[in-house]
């Protein structure tokens, strides 16, 4: 049989040509094909008034993008050609050239002009040729699938290819009636296979940034879900994230596991990590802003208050009732005084859903629900910047300030905010107003067998202050606080275990904390010590001015 095949190939030039016939390639369903899937390519004989008993053809495939894993011959099981003889030869590293004057659709012409007009094979590392020969003692049935090649789709990310175009091509073809020495004109209507939208192509390095202003970005966590894990664009109940971890200290992580043209959903949250930093997110400045907004209502409940950003209304609703009112304000006040009744205000031990996170382009935009958590990796977009905000963080001390124009209130003006109790203008300050920083003289000394902590204040214009203190309760026991903040100032304090909360707040913004020595704290000594070094530490030392500007105190 081998000799017969060789002879037939050599005798091509003596054959006469007759009716046209067709060799076409078809594929399995490629609408949802992905890297690692099996692609089946079938060569089909579609004859028009032709009676071939010999079929021979070359296909060429990209061996960087496809891996040939199998070959079957449906022609031998079509009910007519069960005795057909088949042969397959593989030539790796070759590329077919059609020649300058040859038609790509008349593939028998390409065979017959082999060796002329530049037509033939040259070396090409990335291509492999599969040569198929099929013959029978009787006519190959019309409209028959002759051979099916199985390929596994490879990841193009590790190659120099940017797509899956023309990954299989039909180089040339012959159909011959051996009984009459008739060779047919062979055409093709589908001589090239290309794949589009192949899923699972590795995107390479994808960078995710969270633009948070605090110094604990390595405590920020991410959870990424694949599109198959989503329902109505959110993770299905019970789904575990496909990828998760922590950002680094710069608020960034990089992944090499994501795929091109794939859409993902990301959740960005935080963990305290045992340092207690999350207790310091919501402070007296936030409480003051909450009060300023809440009390700017008239007798009919109409508010004249406007936050700078629409997102602040979401952040200020810490009791979750859909409004920013006095009830929220007192939740803020309770928090800075060491009481926790709202689970939406972040703390070191909190577990509530108090996070907002989304792509910076949509972050804080009401029309986009303030956050967009879906992102799609493409060939040209592999870096994504996200914003993140905490509930209650009205001054954006630990949260990302929105940058989108649509995130700002159009009517935000200081003069539009009127205190109905006084008729005077109030201020919910521009969140981008820089903090002010002052030196604060806090001293501790042993006086009459007790330890006295004295706050010396020379900063004017303060309508609120907050001092969170941690003391060694194996040596000290809290006794009392002496206030000298002004007769009309509202002061607060609380002690629990080794923690002490001290502060003052005029939520109307009309009264200022008196300078001098506004706070003197007295501790009894459980154990006698000779000095106070290391006995008292401070977690928050902060003030707020009437215009809403935060004042950071640096301890002298």
Dominant shape: elongated
Strand-residue fraction? 35-45%
Structurally, the number of domains stands at: 4
Overall pLDDT score: 89
Q: Helix/strand-derived class?
A: mainly beta
CATH architecture of the largest domain, please? Sandwich
Rg from Cα = 39 Å
- Termini separation comes to 101 Å
Query: Could you please say which CATH topology of the largest domain applies here?
Result: Immunoglobulin-like
- In which range does the helix fraction lie? under 10%
Q: What ranges have pLDDT less than 50 throughout 5 or more consecutive residues?
A: 1-18
Number of helices: 5
User: What's the count of strands?
Assistant: 29
CATH top level label of the largest domain: Mainly Beta
For the largest beta-sheet, the strand count, sense and barrel status come to:
10 strands, mixed
Please specify the SSE layout and strand pairing.
Layout: H1 2-10, E1 16-27, E2 38-47, E3 54-62, E4 66-72, E5 85-97, H2 107-112, E6 120-135, E7 144-153, E8 164-177, E9 182-187, E10 192-195, E11 206-210, E12 220-226, E13 230-231, E14 234-235, E15 243-246, E16 252-255, E17 263-270, H3 284-294, H4 311-316, H5 326-336, E18 355-359, E19 374-376, E20 383-390, E21 436-447, E22 450-457, E23 462-471, E24 476-483, E25 491-496, E26 499-505, E27 516-525, E28 536-545, E29 550-555
Parallel strand pairs: 1-9, 11-20, 21-29
Antiparallel strand pairs: 1-2, 2-7, 3-6, 3-8, 4-7, 5-6, 8-9, 8-10, 11-16, 12-15, 12-17, 13-14, 17-19, 18-20, 21-22, 22-27, 23-26, 23-28, 24-27, 25-26, 28-29
């Amino acid at each position: 049989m081998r000799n017969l095949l060789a002879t037939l190939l050599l005798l091509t030039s003596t054959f006469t040509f007759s009716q046209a016939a067709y060799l076409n390639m078809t594929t399995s369903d490629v609408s949802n094909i992905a890297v690692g899937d099996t692609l089946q390519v079938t060569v089909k004989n579609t004859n028009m008034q032709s009676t071939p008993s010999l079929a021979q053809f070359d296909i060429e495939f990209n061996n960087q993008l496809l891996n040939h894993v199998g070959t079957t011959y449906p022609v031998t099981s079509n009910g007519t050609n069960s005795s057909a003889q088949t042969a397959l030869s593989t030539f790796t590293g070759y590329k077919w050239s059609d020649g300058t004057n040859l038609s790509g659709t008349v593939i028998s012409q390409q065979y017959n002009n082999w060796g002329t007009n530049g037509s033939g094979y040259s070396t090409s590392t990335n291509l492999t040729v599969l040569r198929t020969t099929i013959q029978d003692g009787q006519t190959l049935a019309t409209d028959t699938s002759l051979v099916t090649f199985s390929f596994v789709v490879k990841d193009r990310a590790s190659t120099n290819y940017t797509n899956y175009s023309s990954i299989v091509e039909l180089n040339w073809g012959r159909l011959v009636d051996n009984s009459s020495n008739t060779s047919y004109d062979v055409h093709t209507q589908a001589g090239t296979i290309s794949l589009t939208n192949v899923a699972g192509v590795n995107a390479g390095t994808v960078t995710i940034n969270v633009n948070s202003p605090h110094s604990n970005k390595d405590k920020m966590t991410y959870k990424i879900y694949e599109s198959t894990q989503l329902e109505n664009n959110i993770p299905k109940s019970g789904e575990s994230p496909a990828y998760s971890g922590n950002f680094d200290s710069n608020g960034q992580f990089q992944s090499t596991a994501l795929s091109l043209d794939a859409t993902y959903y990301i959740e960005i949250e935080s963990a305290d990590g045992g340092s207690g930093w999350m207790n310091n997110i919501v402070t007296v400045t936030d409480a003051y802003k909450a009060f300023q907004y809440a009390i700017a209502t008239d007798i009919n409940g109409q508010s004249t208050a406007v936050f700078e950003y629409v997102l602040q209304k979401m952040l200020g609703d810490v009791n979750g009732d859909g409004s920013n009112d006095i009830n929220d304000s007192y939740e803020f006040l309770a928090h800075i005084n060491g009481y926790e009744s709202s689970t939406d205000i972040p703390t070191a031990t909190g577990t509530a859903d108090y996070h907002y996170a989304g792509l910076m382009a949509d972050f804080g935009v009401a029309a986009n629900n303030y956050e967009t958590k879906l992102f799609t990796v493409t060939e040209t977009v592999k870096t994504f910047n996200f914003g993140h905000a905490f509930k209650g963080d009205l001054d954006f001390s630990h949260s990302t300030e929105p940058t989108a124009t649509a995130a700002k209130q159009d009517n935000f003006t200081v003069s539009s905010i009127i205190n109905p109790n006084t008729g005077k203008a109030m201020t919910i300050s521009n969140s981008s107003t820089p903090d002010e920083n002052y030196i604060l003289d806090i001293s501790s000394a042993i006086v009459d067998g007790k330890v006295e902590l004295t706050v010396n204040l020379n900063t004017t214009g303060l309508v609120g202050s907050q001092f969170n203190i941690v003391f060694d309760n194996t040596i000290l026991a809290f006794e009392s606080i002496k206030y000298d903040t002004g007769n009309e100032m509202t002061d607060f304090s609380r002690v629990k275990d080794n923690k002490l909360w001290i502060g003052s707040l005029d939520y109307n913004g009309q009264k200022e904390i008196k300078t001098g020595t506004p706070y003197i704290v007295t501790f009894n000594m459980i154990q006698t010590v000779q000095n106070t070094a290391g006995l008292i530490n401070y977690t928050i030392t902060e003030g707020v001015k009437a215009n809403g500007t935060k004042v950071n105190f640096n301890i002298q």
